[in-house]
Amino acid sequence: MRSNAMATAATFYNRQYAETGYAQFDEHPCAQEVAAFVERYALRGTQCLEIGCGRGLLQDIVDDYTGLDLSDTVRSYLRKPFYSGSAESLPFDDASFDALWTLTVLEHVPNPEAALTEIRRVLRPGGLAFLKPAWNCRWWACEGIPVRPYSDLSIFRRWVKLTLGIRESLALRMLLAAPARLTTAARMRLTNRPRPLHYRRLQADYDTYWMADSDACSALDPMEVIRWFTARGDSAVSHPTVRSALLSRSEAVVIRRGGGA
């Protein structure tokens, strides 16, 4: 079943990149952040991987670059090594890269824990991962509720659309996230042992691309991702304390791979 879902997603992204200019921009919105990451950790001459490279706008940010994307359509845009494949099963040997980055990608992976496991596997001990998905994607984006007319929606979804201002408010989002985050914080302080990744499954829409993240299939919280890595012996260099993880919002999470399995 998962292979069928992956094939459906690959067909969607091939079509989007080929026909509608999906994610087409002259400069990647995260280019400056990745450039700062590369400079800060002196990665220019190291072996780097981008998971979900799209048209390869960041391929010249380091000398030794490898790009991977689920869509094979983007291959013609890459001048450097490119692989077509899934983040859930990276086609690389263990400990192949000194660093990697993945931008607005992990929320589109049906099994993000498998992707995190693969990220750890292909990084060398001490290697760095710059992770910036769209955190905490909303189910209503999958259905395009913010951009669809009321006449197109059921009564319940009309109510959701009417109350989006409240639902998207920072205060409400923090209030709803607080119980899970406080529980995670307690686990990190008391018994930070490996546990499965907690995330919410979303129903991606591969028929109509209503808006950004209509194709998201996972809602990930940055603190939960930090906990997942640190419980396996890695360090979150971007969020070195439980308090900083607790207060994380939309920023990137930078992980340094530990030496354990």
Question: Which key terms come to mind for this protein?
Answer:
alpha/beta; Rossmann fold; 7-stranded mixed beta sheet; 9 strands; 35% helix
| Helical coverage, percent range | 25-40%
- Strand order across the biggest sheet? 3-2-1-4-5-9-8
In CATH terms, what is the architecture? Answer: 3-Layer(aba) Sandwich
Largest sheet: 7 strands, mixed
Find the count of extended strands (DSSP E, 2+ residues).
Answer: 9
Alpha-beta classification: alpha/beta
In the CATH scheme, the class would be Alpha Beta
Number of domain units:
1
H/E element order: HHEEEEHEHHHHEEHEHE
- Helix run count: 9
Describe the structure in brief.
With 261 residues, this protein is an alpha/beta fold. Helices cover 35% and strands 16% of the residues.
How are the SSEs ordered, and which strands pair?
Elements: H1 2-20, H2 31-40, E1 47-51, E2 64-69, E3 82-84, E4 97-103, H3 112-122, E5 123-132, H4 139-142, H5 155-162, H6 164-167, H7 170-190, E6 200-201, E7 218-219, H8 222-230, E8 235-236, H9 242-246, E9 253-256
Parallel strand pairs: 1-2, 1-4, 2-3, 4-5
Antiparallel strand pairs: 5-9, 6-7, 8-9
Helix pairs in contact: 7-8
Task: Please tell me about this protein's structure.
The chain is an alpha/beta fold. The chain is 35% helix and 16% strand. α7 (170-190) runs parallel beside α8. The protein has nine helices and nine strands. The protein has helices at 2-20, 31-40, 112-122, 139-142, 155-162, 164-167, 170-190, 222-230, 242-246; strands spanning 47-51, 64-69, 82-84, 97-103, 123-132, 200-201, 218-219, 235-236, 253-256. The protein has a single domain (2-256), classed as 3-Layer(aba) Sandwich (Rossmann fold), CATH 3.40.50. The strands form two sheets. A seven-stranded mixed beta sheet has the order 3-2-1-4-5-9-8. Strands 6-7 form a two-stranded antiparallel sheet.
